[in-house]
ADP-ribosylglycohydrolase
Amino acid sequence: MEPPTSKNELPDHHCPVCGKKQRVFLRYPWHICNECLSLAEDGDGRRLAFGNTSASGGLCYNYPEEPELAAQICYSVICLIHRRPVLVTEARFGGVVAQPLPSSHVVTKDKHGCVELTRRTIH
């Protein structure tokens, strides 16, 4: 990647999961593309889906293959894409954004409404 040549030119961005070229969002420098976000799973391998709770925002997740389970409202979700941890949050003006979880990120149970779904629960 070459450095920008002018103030108006932004560097390229590629999805950190699949490498597909993406639009640059300075607020979310490592955002994962929607196609890869659709691969999100919990620690048991159950597929996850994310959305906003209303037109004014809010984050929720559900298990699309288990429609009997109601959507869960939360602030953020730590889940897995290709067995690697990612953090999913509400985007600033609506929508959902996922970024790789830095190894230094420490989450305690229910810290600020964060739901940790990377651990296996089915034995």
